[in-house]
Amino acid sequence: MDKKSNFLGLVPLVFFLALFMGTGIITGDFTNMPLLLALIFASGFALLFDKKGEKTSLNDKIDIFSKAGGEPTIILMVVVFLLAGAFYSIADAMGAVSSIVNLGLSVLPANMLLPGIFMVGCTLSFAMGTSMGTISALTPIGVGIAQQTGIGLPLVLGTVVGSAMFGDNLSFISDTTIAAIRTQGVEPRDKFKANFLIVLPAVIITLIALTFLSTGNAELATYEYSLVRIIPYVAIIVSALIGVNVMLVLGIGIGSGAIIGLAMGSFNMVELFQVLQRGMGWMEDLAIIAIIVGGLVGLMSHYGGLDYLLEKVTSKVKTKKGAEMGIAALVSVIDIATTNNTISIITAGPLAKDLSKEYDIDPRRTASILDIFSSAFQGLIPYGGQLLLAAGIGKISPIEIVPFSIYSFLIIIFGLLAIIFDLPKLKSKDNKNDLTMKG
């Protein structure tokens, strides 16, 4: 066994899951154990451990925790949370939410609202390459639709999260795509072709399911809306589609909403400041949760927990199909442990490449497996950034959204079927642009 690997490094995660999930199961209500509190308890518990064969002082362990919690990606996520809250608050205060919801209710048939949200989210996330930006833009609209129609809010938010993970998985510019193709040495378009053929059935079934689930109290009627008031959403979507950074995208949305709100008398300058603060306040818990999760993962990595995962998941691989299952399991478990699908791909990628060479797995297929499974679980873990953001804007528990992240569940199923039945069939690397689903 690698001297760096140690099961004890995973015990804080087990403790957290047992505390959070156990309390919810025993009491019948997952809100009875606040997510932040469970994570703080788990972090305190983690400080009791030591790296295998070493003695680390409490001060050093706190430093490790603090540096990991303050990692640039985590801080960026915190700022995105705060900006997303500010945008939602200002969009609500100046009438953008009600206007765009009423426009949707006027244009779309009642049974096409959820498929419409899903397709818009897929397009947006694919164009901008970030699930967080997509959730920031669409969740306020989804909340409004749920309030107007009576469609369950968890279902609407699960639809938004699923659509966001579509682009996170497939976009040419997403972090996960870049990580997957770089660790496996393949071209973006080749990985996209292999990946898309695997998830296409999941997209189709999701749209069909959402059509049947789009039931509510919406009546066929013309609702009152203002095209001027929806400009902040148009600005966000357009700026995202042309590839603007997610923070700038949210800044454009906030700025345009402020200008229109002031011009149309929705609020004055002093009230605008209060509206912005209110929205950021809604997201404060989530921002702290992101930092605590980062610190906890840093301690688990220091103790050898992630190395233990790497070792155990791949130790029993004997066949090509077993190697593919091992790669899928490895990246999934690391994502559950780290709550970051890009980090999980970067961590699992080198070992996945070794397994691919040993068992003659096409690297395009390996890259697809890494990206599909990491993105799927990222859309399902209730303490991950995507569900935290959606739940924060919707003011519900993230655990309520999990059962309704239909697309995330389906891409796991079709990912497993692709491994079991060796689909899609990839032609030789000499003709690597030709892919087929034929046996």
UniProtKB/TrEMBL annotation:
Record localization: Cell membrane
UniProt topology in membrane: Multi-pass membrane protein
Domain Na+/H+ antiporter NhaC-like C-terminal, first and last residues per copy: 24-209, 219-417
UniProt xrefs under Pfam families: Na_H_antiporter
Record flagged with keyword Ligase: no
UniProt keyword list: Antiport, Cell membrane, Membrane, Transmembrane, Transmembrane helix, Transport
Family statement drawn from the similarity comment of this UniProt entry: Belongs to the NhaC Na(+)/H(+) (TC 2.A.35) antiporter family.
Protein name: Na+/H+ antiporter NhaC family protein
